[in-house]
Every structure is written in structure tokens, then in C-alpha cells.
Amino acid sequence: NAGVMQNPRHLVRRRGQEARLRCSPMKGHSHVYWYRQLPEEGLKFMVYLQKENIIDESGMPKERFSAEFPKEGPSILRIQQVVRGDSAAYFCASSPPEKSYGYTFGSGTRLTVV
Amino acid sequence: AQSVTQLDSQVPVFEEAPVELRCNYSSSVSVYLFWYVQYPNQGLQLLLKYLSGSTLVKGINGFEAEFNKSQTSFHLRKPSVHISDTAEYFCAVSEGQAGTALIFGKGTTLSVSS
């Protein structure tokens, strides 16, 4: 039973390019959450999605960031026109649809903007 | 608004010594509390969680935590640490139903030396 799969593990982008981060939740999990971890900081919530729906995007920056979780395929976190301040580790977590607490996290994607 | 404070950013200890990592939270409603561990360049692994019931919660790897509602604390303890416990530890809180985002503390780096 594979865990939460994130790819790529490491991503280097030049300023102004686009970054696409992918997350495949655990089998049977239909809830996906994205978090960002800046150096010396804890994880900050970005967005919560269910299949084809954004449930809570209160933590997403207003510009350049978007997320989706299509009916088929992984969840995608997209960052357009990246800037140096976007350099961080981005973690995805998933949980099943029934009531439960706590989430299974992926190993993260470490984005470096040069 | 919820917040989580991890009072110590770094905790150095010797092998086989006891350790306590402190966590305080602020919330006006009932909360659910979690401790996660992050090894270098890996994702977060759930150590233990408090949802309801007994205030003493036992987790993996010999860790336990005690929920203290009056002091709004959820300190993590281990009676005897190993070198392999060296990692970053995060306390997190959520309110309400499943799907509510986790709010994380900034983390405590536990360094165990021989």
C-alpha cells in the first residue's frame, strides 16, 4: 500500500518560470492538503481539496498559485512566474473521506528558485 | 484564531536521558492535537494524536504526550532517548471535523548525542 507520493522530490526553476508539483494520495484517500515549509518555519497550510473541488484555499497566496485535484490523476500545485521567495519545501497530505484526524504526509518537493 | 507555540527551538540531550518537548496552543474551542516527527529530507510521520478520552496518549517509538486542558498544553515525552530519535518534532492542532487544516508550531530540533 503505497503512501502519499510526491514528485519531483527536487525541482529547480529560474525566476519567471512555472513550477508544477504533483501529489498522488494514498489509495482510498479523497482529501488532499498542501502545506509549505519555509526555512526555520513550521508548515503553513495552503489549500484543501477534494476530487474536483477546492474546499479551503485560505492559505494560498492570492496571485501566481493555483491547485487542482481532478477526477483522474494526481493533485497539482502550480506556481506561475516563480520568485526567489517561493523556494521552500512543499508537502502534500491526504486523508480518507470518513471522519478521521491526522493525515498521511508525502516526502515533499523541495523547490529552489535561482 | 488558533496558534501553536513550541517553546524550545532546539533540545540537545544525551542518549538514554529523558526528554520533554513542550507545546502550548491557543484556541477557544475543543481541539485535536498531534505530534509529528520529520527526519532529514523526509516527510512528516505521525507520532501520536489526541482526539478525546484519556489525556495520556501513547505513540510510536516509545513517545507519549499528555493533554492538559487547563494549561492548554500537549507536551511530548520519552523516558530514554536513542541516537535515532534525532529529528525535528512538530506539534499541530486542528478544530472541528475531519478536513480542517492543521496548524503547526515552528518545530523543535531534538539532537541526541552519545
Question: What is this structure, in a nutshell?
Answer:
Chain A is mostly beta strands and 114 residues long. Chain A has no helices and eleven strands. Helices cover 0% and strands 49% of the residues of chain A.
| Succession of helices and strands of chain A | EEEEEEEEEEE
Uncertain segments of chain B: none
Question: Could you state the oligomeric state of the chains shown?
Answer: heterodimer
SSE topology string of chain B? EEEEEEEEEEEE
Beta-strand content bin of chain B: over 45%
Helix content of chain B: under 10%
Measured distance between first and last alpha carbons of chain B: 41 Å
Query: How big is the Rg of chain A?
Result: 13 Å
Q: What would the principal axes of the Cα set say about the shape of chain A?
A: globular
Total strands of chain A: the figure is 11
β-strand percent of chain A reads over 45%
Q: Unreliable segments of chain A (pLDDT under 50, ≥5 consecutive)?
A: none
- Total helix count of chain B? 0
Describe this structure in words.
- The complex is a heterodimer of chains A (114) and B (114).
- Chain A is mainly beta and 114 residues long.
- Chain A is built from no helices and eleven strands.
- Chain A has strands at 5-7, 10-13, 19-24, 31-37, 43-50, 53-56, 65-68, 75-79, 88-95, 104-105, 109-113.
- In chain A, the strands form two sheets. In chain A, strands 2, 4, 5, 6, 9, 10 and 11 form a seven-stranded mixed sheet that branches. In chain A, strands 1-3-8-7 form a four-stranded antiparallel sheet, with no helix packed on it.
- Chain A is globular.
- With 114 residues, chain B is mainly β.
- Chain B contains no helices and twelve strands.
- Chain B has strands at residues 3-5, 10-14, 19-21, 24-26, 31-38, 44-50, 56-58, 64-68, 73-78, 87-95, 103-104, 108-113.
- In chain B, strands 2, 5, 6, 10, 11 and 12 form a six-stranded mixed sheet that branches. In chain B, strands 3-9-8-7 form a four-stranded antiparallel sheet, with no helix packed on it.
- In chain B, a hairpin with a 5-residue loop joins strand 5 and strand 6.
- Chain B is globular, with a radius of gyration of 14 Å.
- The mean pLDDT of chain B is 90.
- The chains are: A mainly beta (114), B mainly beta (114).
- The interface between A and B is medium-sized, with 31 and 26 residues.
